[in-house]
Amino acid sequence: MKHGSLLNYLRRHEQSLIGNMGLLLDMCIQVCKGMAYLERHNYIHRDLAARNCLVGSENVVKVADFGLARYVLDDQYTSSGGTKFPIKWAPPEVLNYTRFSSKSDVWAYGVLMWEVFTCGKMPYGRLKNTEVVERVQRGIILERPKACAKEIYDIMKKCWAHSPEDRPSFRVLKEQLVLVAQGLTD
After folding, report:
1. What's an example of a GO molecular-function annotation for this chain (predicted)?
2. DSSP label at residue 82
3. 47 catalytic per annotation
4. What is the residue range of 111's domain?
5. Which residues, in sequence order, are bridge partners of residue 101?
6. Which domain CATH number covers 82?
7. Which of 14, 76, 111, 172 has the CB geometry, 3.0–4.6 Å to 168, for a possible disulfide?
8. Element (H, E) at 15
9. Is this structure's pTM higher than 0.90?
């Protein structure tokens, strides 16, 4: 993948990308399709973020870095002791109980979408992990990026529903994002 990580690509090309909502949304849709594939095959990634996606020629984006991925039989995986996970991409059930599922990946995907539409800004800025945990537990979510349409931000917010059951599946997210993308081209 000749352009390296999605995070670095977004940061390097911010000037040309920031106004191109269609391209940014397409990148999100590609990641969503990859995650829908994992979800369908009962895998959870557990470390989804822009830094763990790769960009190839013609803006092809692939999900990568499966170092923390797990195959799950009963839809969730509770980590026992010592598991490190990225706080700024973690939902309440991971922060409180280290309980991972496809729905915790959906939360992280919402943060990845935020990263894409800010062209690689750090979620929650300079806040310390303890401050991020406190905000997430109080239901305070990331603000809408300037370059992000309300319809897209509304989908991000669905990813950040406090309860995992209230978050959409990747399959549903993909359908919703494709509809928004069609609306942009009409």
Report:
1. protein tyrosine kinase activity
2. S
3. yes
4. 4-184
5. 76
6. 1.10.510.10
7. 172
8. helix 14-17
9. yes
